[in-house]
Amino acid sequence: MAVPSPHPIKAKLRKEARAARMRFVSRLEDETRHALEENLAELLAPVLASARIIGTYSPIGSELSPARAIVRARRLGKTIAYPAFEEGDEMFRFRAGEPSMPGPHRIMQPTTDAPVVTPDLILVPLVACGNGGTRLGQGKGHYDRVLAAQKEAGARLIGLGWKVQRLDTDIPAEDWDVPLHAFACPRYLEEF
Ligand SMILES: Nc1nc2c(c(=O)[nH]1)N(C=O)[C@@H](CNc1ccc(C(=O)N[C@@H](CCC(=O)O)C(=O)O)cc1)CN2
Ligand SMILES: Nc1ncnc2c1ncn2[C@@H]1O[C@H](COP(=O)(O)OP(=O)(O)OP(=O)(O)O)[C@@H](O)[C@H]1O
């Protein structure tokens, strides 16, 4: 099978969006960053309260952290799951538990014996979100490979990012791109 070449517009947008996110976060005092993540937790509280199994992520670099929102959800007894890769895998599965072990890209994930679950709500990391909920990710297609089936199974997909990551443009969507139901940043939740 032919390997598709990277989409040139997406590649450019990804580079710019990563730089903008980095610039924004590098100017944030730790205290402000934590206050914004606490705002996000408050904003997401009703959404998480009505879910049963929540797919989330262990943040890296300048990504917005859902950790404060997740602490609250755990207190409510929700099942919390993270993307987990097995050795050499291009496709992750959501496994319930604490992210206690480093996976590829040194992202923390549950151990490979943790139960595989089907979340009814997924908090999705992103590099940028465009009009209509088109998501730009890390460019490896990891979430693309998983989200279609999860959406089909009934999951609500909420992309998380700082406000600068919400681009007021149409990001070109390819066949495998799965539109998000909503985008949330510390200040608002936008439904598509
Ligand atoms: N927190 C988090 N977990 C995630 C993802 C993600 O985007 N964020 N993924 C999304 O698919 C999957 C892992 N796939 C990844 C694929 C590529 C890179 C990557 O290229 N990372 C850059 C650093 C980018 C940054 O700091 O934001 C690198 O290694 O140089 C990271 C994760 C599943 N878990
Ligand atoms: N369902 C799929 N099955 C196999 N390969 C896929 C699938 N979806 C995407 N890919 C591959 O992943 C590559 C990257 O896709 P894309 O640029 O849309 O990634 P992304 O959405 O930015 O990244 P990610 O999902 O990792 O956060 C594509 O070139 C494609 O080859």
TrEMBL record:
The keyword Metal-binding applies. InterPro entries: FTHF_cligase. The keyword Metal-binding applies. It is an enzyme of class 6 (ligase). Coiled coil: none annotated. Its EC number is 6.3.3.2. GO terms for molecular function: 5-formyltetrahydrofolate cyclo-ligase activity. It catalyses: (6S)-5-formyl-5,6,7,8-tetrahydrofolate + ATP = (6R)-5,10-methenyltetrahydrofolate + ADP + phosphate. Belongs to the 5-formyltetrahydrofolate cyclo-ligase family. This is 5-formyltetrahydrofolate cyclo-ligase.
